[in-house]
Amino acid sequence: MKKEKSQLNIEVLKNRIEKMNNEIVSWRRHFHQHGELSFQEFATSDFIEKQLESFGGLDISRPTKTGVIAKIIGEKPGRTIALRADIDALPMTELNDLPYASEIEGVMHSCGHDGHTAILLGIAKLFSEQKDQMSGTLVCIFQHAEELPPGGAVEMVKAGVMEGIDEIYGLHLSSSFPTGTFGIRSGFLTAATDRFDIEVIGQGGHSAMPETCVDPIVIGAQIISNLQTIVSRRIKGIEPAVLSVCQVEAGHAYNIIPNTMNITGSVRTFSQETRNNMAGMIKEISQGNASSYGADCKVSYELGYSSVVNDEELTENVEAVVEAWFGKESILAIDPVMPGEDFSAFTEATDCPGCFVEIGTANEVLGTTRPHHNPNYLMDEEGLYYGTSLFAGIVFDRLFTD
């Protein structure tokens, strides 16, 4: 059946989003100044709830300690869709000189979550005024703790947030793509993200007499080097995978060989078979190297977030939305990205189809090309308009057309 648009249309929505833009930017800057770490977003969720209450007409709940849900129930029957924004910040000190720089020592929104939250607040406000024309229900999920496994998405799923939801959508503001573009991909979008911890147990002693010791630092260095052969020599060359050693701890004095060395890192994979085999390969290399030097070695491997897999049909619908709003030239057919996302829990644990989109915020003139998780990360706030428009376009397409 051919779709017939309601009296609400794309141009009307664009105009309303433009009028709301300053408010959305102000929300983003508030969150940026007052970032909170994963599972500690109490003031953030209180602020979100207060803003939602001011819009009126929303069914608001707190399914977890720091997660917030807002439902907009249309006056006509229809499908139920969810939009998700993550709300937590990262444990780092901001180095930017901004009027709205983080006021919280050691905490910074350096991954765009402040923008995601502001965008979803804008959507809640925009459509709270359109319930009479809405066919179905819109669920706005303000999710805590995306940055810290096991993540807030799993908690929200266990709390029943996904019950009755037919489709779910998410976005990420990304400095990897130019402002005004939309990175879209069907199928695997993000990598699975796992963690390994290795403890090399040697025998410490005086640095002047290493022959009396079993030096865990020398052994650990060999392990670190040999771990790199997993991706280069034990995984198919056409298959993407990353193994990174990110933390090394050993010793406390310049002239003492320590007893132990601890090595921690992350693994990124797409293939389930490779993911399943990683723990064994890391253990084999680590314990083999340690044993050859007369040391012991303990290895633990923790599964993190699964890959985000975009539903083919929903991805095609989203591409059509973006093309209708901003033209086909704004769509980037992107490769899979290696960072992880616990958005996967919403689809994997519930078999609910989903689609996740990368929103470009890279602008060389403004200096917003630095990577995420960086103390000098900056956001091109024009990306907020494009993110809000994407979500608005999805809602209009799924709940306002017949």
Task: Quickly describe the structure.
The chain is α/β, with parallel strands linked by helices and 402 residues long. 34% of the residues lie in helices and 26% in strands.
Overview of this protein structure:
- It contains 9 helices and 16 strands.
- It is of the alpha/beta class and 402 residues long.
- It folds into 2 domains: 10-189 and 307-399, Zn peptidases (Aminopeptidase); 192-305, Alpha-Beta Plaits, CATH 3.30.70.360.
- An 8-stranded mixed sheet has the order 1-2-4-3-5-16-6-15, with helices on both faces.
- A hairpin with a 6-residue loop joins strand 1 and strand 2.
- The longest helix is centred in the N-terminal third of the chain and has 24 residues, at 10-33.
- It is elongated.
- The termini are close together.
- Mean pLDDT is 96; it is low at 1-6.
Throw out a few tags for this protein.
402 residues, alpha/beta, Aminopeptidase, Alpha-Beta Plaits, 2 domains, eight-stranded mixed β-sheet, 9 helices, 16 strands, 34% helix, disordered N terminus
Strand fraction:
25-35%
> How many discrete structural domains?
2
Largest sheet entry:
8 strands, mixed
Strand sequence of the main sheet, in spatial order? 1-2-4-3-5-16-6-15
What is the name of the CATH topology of the largest domain? Aminopeptidase
Distance between the termini: 8 Å
What Rg do the Cα atoms give?
A: 24 Å
